[in-house]
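Sample entry copied in:
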Amino acid sequence: MKPKSRRKFLQESISLSAAASTALLSASPLVARTAASNSRVLGANDRVRVALIGCGGMGRGDLKDFLRVKNVECVALSDVDDEQSDKALKATEEQVSRRPAVTRDFRKVLDQKDIDAVIVATPDHWHALPTIMACQAGKDVYVEKPLSVSIAEGRIMVETARKNDRVVQMGTQQRSAPHYTEAVDYVKSGKLGKVRLVRAWAYLDWKGETPKVPDSDPPASVDYDMWLGPARKRPFNKNRFHFTFRWYWDYSGGLMTDWGAHMIDIANWAMGIKAPGSAVSIGGKFGYPDDAMETPDTQQVLWAYPDFSMIWEHALGVGRGPEAREHGVAFHGNDAVLVV
C-alpha cells in the first residue's frame, strides 16, 4: 500500500470522523447490545440530541461531523474556556431550531433530560469522569482517544457503560478507512503466513523543540481550576494548555498515546490482541533534552505475546521511520510482509 503524506492522513481522519459519527448514531456500539439498547435505536423521524464536552479543535471537528448526519441536533456546549465555546457555536450555525446552551460545567449538560448522547473531546485527563457520569445519567457517549490515562480508569469506564447499558464508542477514526479494513482482512486471511513480528511507528518532523516559558496567570476566559480537574494543582503555564497538554504526564502520555493510540489499534485489531504476557519500554528526551516537554521525544516499546512480538517506536523531529515512512504498521509473516 502506498505511503500517504501527513496532510492526506489528516484530511482522511476528518472524513473518517464523520463515518464514525454515523456508526455511533445508528447505534452500532462497542458495548454489546441488549434488548434495552435495541429499543433505543431511533427512527428516521426522530431527532438525536447531542452535546459537546470539550470545544477545542478536535471537539469542533467531531461536532461538525455529527451535524452532517441527518436528524442530529446539538443542544449544549461545555468548555472551561469561553473562547473555545464561542468557536464551537459557529459549528451549529446550520441549525435552525435552537441555539445550544453553553456552560463551563459539564455536569449541567448531563443534568439536561433532553440529551441523548455526548461527545467527550476534552484533554485526555478529563476523558474518564465525563464518560462515566454521562453513562450514569443515561447518555450514550462518543469519547476521543486515548480512552483514559490509566488502566484503572479505562476499566471503570467499560464497567460503567455495561452496567448502565450505554452505547460508547472511542474515537479511533482510522477503523472507518477502507484501506485499513482491507489490510486487517488480509492479515487475518493467513496469506502472510504465520505473523511473527508486528511493528507500529510514528516519526514526526513537524514537532520539534518546545521552548520553556514562565508560569503566568491563566486567560480571563478560562476556569483554570476546572481545567485541572483530577490533575494535581499547579500554576498555569501555556505550554501545558490546549494542544501541548499532551507532552505532560499529568494530562496525557506523549506521542505514544497520541499517534500511537491510532497505529497500535490497527495492530491490535489485525492480531486480535487481548493483553501481552510482558512489556518493556525504553527512551527519553534524546532529541530535545533541555526543552519544556516531560514525555519522551524518542521511545521504543516491546510487547511479548505467546507466538509473536510487537514493537512501537516514535521520534519527534525526525520525519523518516521504518519502510521510509512517517507512520505505519508492518506485519512480518513467514511468507510475506504487509505495510499499511
